[in-house]
Amino acid sequence: MVPLPYYLLLSGILFACGVAGFLIKRNIITIFMSIELMLNGVNLSFVAFAAQWQALSGQVFVFFVMVVAAAEAAVGLAIIIAVYRTRATLNVDKVDLLKL
Amino acid sequence: MLHLVLFLVFGLICVAGAVNLLLQSHPINSALSLVVVMGSLAVEYLLLGAEFVAAVQVIVYAGAVMVLFVFVIMLLNAGAEEHSKGSIIALALGVPGMLVAAILIAWVLVTHSGVHSVALGALLGHPRDIAQLLFHDFLLPFEVTSILVLIAIMGSVVLASRPEAIEHSKKEG
Lengths: 100, 173
What we know:
heterodimer, A: mainly alpha, Helix Hairpins, elongated, B: Four Helix Bundle (Hemerythrin (Met), subunit A)
């Protein structure tokens, strides 16, 4: 028996690490990996609540989140390749054409 | 008891991987620690009785998505992270922000949740039951995701291909 808050705490820690990586990291690929980390943290809380309330639809939602995350990863990495081709850098501080 | 021990061991591995993702400066090291996080999360799903989700986690996330990440890192020859003025500001804002978020989440969990616990084997996400839900109750969303994936494939091919290649194929066709 594992208390439900333990799972939610783990999920919260993963989400917080993802937020921190999104804010701290300067490499565009690492920022993208932080987003995946946040999605994983949310998935864990989905599965924990599914076990708590005996509802399998929580696990189906996790499946949908994974499908959308995979599509997002494919498109996002293609955008990263396009950015690298035009700007020749992966540093987000140097992608600043919209700045005044 | 064994359940709790397994949860703690793999939870610690998970958190260690997530923290290592933040500490490493080279993207390939971050990607490999993300694989560790996803693998130990699959064990956590198994502990919660979600067999199907654990299998999909390993196949789709730790397999397909991370291979894509590593492939792009190799393709772009990404080196170690460069530090600039912006990175110091980001560090000064990001670390307190993360601490505030983590403390808020922990506080809400401590004060607003009862003493529920999750029993091993109480709910088994058997693939048969998942399929019943997925192809019956959630049939329309399932079909819509197939369109989404199709659009994503076409979008990533167009975005990643060189502009000259598209021009060339227009002239050919």
